[in-house]
Specification:
Length: 88
């Protein structure tokens, strides 16, 4: 197993994490300053949920979830900054 597999799984999970984080943000009125940690927690949780469906060990799925959560939070911040820039 190499890092390519971990990053492939993480890239697939990023879209799922972005969608779930946005739904949670709207329904639970989560402040945007807490979205990065929320995305990481969601990523780790989704990694655990998808673990039985994958061929990877549980620690690989946890790492994939962590990486995808960080990526999703970075994507969220990037989109937020682009939105602010577009309004000016």
């Amino acid at each position: 197993m190499d890092l390519t597999n971990i990053f492939t799984v993480a890239a697939i999970m990023v879209a799922i994490i972005l969608a779930v984080a946005e739904v949670l943000k709207k329904t639970l009125n989560i402040n945007t300053q807490y979205m990065p940690i929320t995305s990481v927690v969601i990523g780790i949780f989704i990694g655990l949920v998808l673990w039985p469906l994958s061929e990877y060990p549980v620690y690989v799925m946890l790492i994939s979830g962590f990486i995808s959560g960080l990526t999703a939070s970075g994507t969220f911040d990037l989109l937020k900054a682009a939105k602010k820039e577009g309004e000016q």
